[in-house]
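Fold this sequence, please.
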Amino acid sequence: MSRKYKQISFEQRVVLQTLLSQIKRPSGQPNISQIAREMNISRQSIYNELKRNSSPIYKKYTATEAQKRRNERRKNSNKPYLIENHPKLQEYIHKRLKQDGWSVEGIVKRTNKWEKETKEQIGKIPCIETIYRYIYRQVKDGGEDLRVYLRFSHQRRQKRKQKKDRRGIIKGRKFIEERDKIVEWRNRIGDWEIDTMEMKGHKGYILTMVERCSRYTQARILSSKNAQLCTESIIEMLRPFAESGWVKSITVDNGKEFAYHQKISDVLKAPVYFCRPYSAWQKGTIEAIHSQYRRFIPKKMSIEMISQKYLDMCVRYLNHRPRKVLDWKSANEILYLHLQSKLRELKYTFQQTKLSNFQVESATLKMKSLKYLITSLAMLSFIASNAQIKNAKTETVKIYGNCGMCETTIENAGNVKKVAQVDWNKDTKTAVLTYDSTKTNQDEILKRIALAGYDSEKFRAPDDVYAKLAGCCQYDRPIKTATKNKEAEMNMSAGHGNHNHSEMTTSANKEASPDQSQLKAVFANYFSVKDALIKTDAATASAKAAELAASLKAVDMNKLSAEEHTAWMKVMKDLAFDAEHIAETKDVAHQRDHFMSLSKNMYELIKVSKQETPVYYQHCPMANKGKRANWLSKENAIKNPYYGSQMLTCGSTVETIK
């Protein structure tokens, strides 16, 4: 039979005080077990009583003082909750969360600092943690669920404590304070900073490194952050520089991928230094380079969408780019200037010490190997990517452009993974096309490049696309291309893919009326999906999304205008992807996630199409966990597809498309 718990009374405390002085062990300590038997209470109860109510300073127990401490604690127990017992405060918090969309911290800080009249009316404003506890207590007690108005609506309140890193500590670290001061001056080549960039879903990483003086950068794709893989990659990438004496120090952070730093140091003959934890500013050069990489490789991009060839192009662009910090020279130019200086030093040393010709030649060749390092890496990656293309056919064509940015855009437009590869030379204005002849052809590749804004001998880019190119990318367009390929341009604007090109010219000259628009069914099915999500009807949304996917496949690009065709080529794959995912699931939350990106791409398409009636582009500040989302509607009245009846009128119209 279980024992029921009862609090110790004052009379029992008096007895306990007496027995503590009488019943003792041979060591002089009270015999708690015997005292418990004498008083007929649990031994643990006596231990608890002594721990709670003994004098905190002298560690002595007296019944009177113990009773006082018990009474004081009793006064403070079972206090009424602050917010629940102040209706005005409760109403104010609900209003700011629900109607105004404020954060909890915003409610507390703003009211305390700027809204003194409001503070006087409602009384004391509780702290941030108190409001959070109130929100989660409401859910537990069956009240209104205010979690949906929080930016991160966790199901449970997370404990406010720092998590301990259980992966161990890297042994033998040298911290940055031990690094030579000369590294800070940036007046020598050979001081490197290394880090890793994480991609979407922590599935794939990019190893990056930058030389502090020249800002010369390198990058390589890694399948994981395994320390062994990372170490081997660092050694392989820096070995040519180490052989030429251009690896003098390496600075890294405290990531476990650098656990084998001693091996790196031994092979490259250079010390490895670690930043202090949570002090990324101590390797600010590589952090700045990461922000430049993110222009081409956004954080949400999957590693599967990036090839080493594309990464090498990004590296080449950054190393050719003039920089203010380098007095408008590029990283490659600074590296080359130091290379020339090194060669002059070798010649001077030869004259002074009369070294043998063999020694000078070997030293010179070693230094010159750096000059060809970038070209070698690019060629290796190009050969590796070509090896993946089956039934490969190689052709050389002329494509007009100006700079390194043009090179990146042209190659990105023409490349298709395992199908087509483009390598463009900005000096000769020629491109080497390597493609699978069973899956594509030269015309298809040149059309994609033309739609990106670059003329070739066969296809002329649309004028509006060319006009949007950056100033440095706007090349001189040859007149003969315009006259010779006028018909080709019309064909290109009218169609794409494996169509009958002989029929394209005819169909392009036929201007489709709005009633016969190929995109009318697409837009109608989109609005049907939106209406189903407003009603939180997952089954109907799934069915309508299937119809949308079918209408997307039925679009005849021969009947699209030039503007519609350009927009269609940009969003076609993403539209089909989102429509198919909405059709495959009956989970309305998952459907709404895909509806966000579906709406974003549909907006790009609908704004270049002629509409019979106005279409309203509407915005919800609460959707996507507070990151905001948009949708399209035929009505100006707000009907929110992301929350349905929960917050039907949450949002506003931001643009009217006519």
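The first strand starts at residue 191 and ends at 198. Residues 331-353 form the longest helix (23 residues).
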